[in-house]
Design a protein that fits this description.
mainly alpha; globular
Length: 315
């Protein structure tokens, strides 16, 4: 348990630092945005490039990992849409905002630092496989979901699919994985100078991501719909990881460490993109904002328990 605490406490300590400095007006939202862009577009892609370019043969197939993680997410998404009909603050546009909040976890700024801090850079490949398609697929699904319950006729599948392709083609994480794979096939290896630079950027990814998350949390509020907030937290942090765990252990065949990453990612609290979606459409904003703020605080305990169960072989 001591090993768990030495992973979790520094992780959430960095989040508290970012939050505290922002509340003290040392940092603001613009600074947090800059840090997040550095994490998404530079630090994590550098980590993935270096890992892929120098890795050996892999034991698992990406589609089995995707089946486990996105299969559990899909079931949670449908469940959230149905449950939203029973919760007034979530019952808007067929529950699209609720489904987005129940499925879109904070993988980049919280899940990735936790996984890397606890398991090491050996998990960079599976987390990169999930991260690379996570945001674009969920944004496309959320927009399609909402459009099915709208009558304005303002949604175009062709235009949205084009935006999805553009997002994938310009996504730093996708580019890092692809560039690393291409470099690996050349067999040239990494020059010491280039390798050291990549290592420095990779090392910066974890603390910068956590500090940026703390900065962003200062902008969320617990005021609003408590019933909607707790419904979203239950769907995201309980139902989804349970479903992914069942798929990992009984449906697909992937390396144990990959399974741990999938379950840990599934257990992450709601991420900022869910809030952006709800705010953009002015739907369930209070509930989603609360789910992000309270869910992230609760994750300090839930992540500790989950990592303990993984380390002891209980799951």
């Amino acid at each position: 348990m001591e090993a768990i605490l030495t992973t979790v406490l520094p992780v959430f300590g960095m989040i508290v630092l970012g939050y505290g400095f922002t509340k003290a007006k040392v940092f603001d939202a613009a600074a947090g945005r800059g840090l997040s862009l550095f994490v998404f577009n530079v630090a994590i892609p550098a980590l993935l490039f270096k890992t892929v370019a120098s890795m050996g043969a892999q034991q698992g197939a990406p589609w089995e990992l995707w089946i486990a993680f996105f299969g559990g997410l899909f079931i949670t998404w449908i469940t959230a849409g149905l449950v939203s009909r029973l919760v007034p603050s979530l019952n808007v546009s067929g529950g699209a905002a609720a489904s987005m909040a129940a499925g879109f976890g904070n993988l980049a700024l919280l899940g990735t630092p936790l996984a890397l801090s606890h398991f090491g850079q050996q998990v960079a490949i599976p987390l990169g496989m999930i991260l690379s398609i996570h945001a674009p697929i969920l944004w496309f699904t959320a927009m399609l979901h909402r459009a099915l319950f709208q009558t304005t006729g303002g949604f175009s599948i062709g235009r949205t699919a084009k935006e999805l392709f553009k997002h994938l083609a310009t996504n730093g994480i996708v580019l890092g994985l692809v560039a690393g794979s291409l470099w690996r096939f050349t067999g040239w290896g990494l020059h010491p100078v280039f390798g050291t630079m990549l290592g420095m950027l990779a090392d910066a990814s974890v603390p910068t991501a956590l500090f940026a998350l703390g900065v962003s949390l200062a902008g969320y509020s617990l005021k609003g719909s408590w019933s909607g907030m707790f419904t979203l937290i239950g769907l995201k942090m309980v139902l989804m990881p349970v479903l992914v765990f069942l798929l990992v252990h009984y449906v697909v065949s992937i390396p144990p460490l990959w399974g741990h990453v999938a379950v840990l990612f599934a257990a992450m609290p709601t991420g900022a993109n869910a809030f952006l979606f709800s705010q953009r459409n002015n739907e369930a904003t209070a509930a989603v904002s609360g789910a992000i703020a309270l869910g992230t605080a609760l994750a300090a305990v839930s992540a500790s328990v989950l990592l303990y169960l993984m380390d002891t072989g209980a799951i």
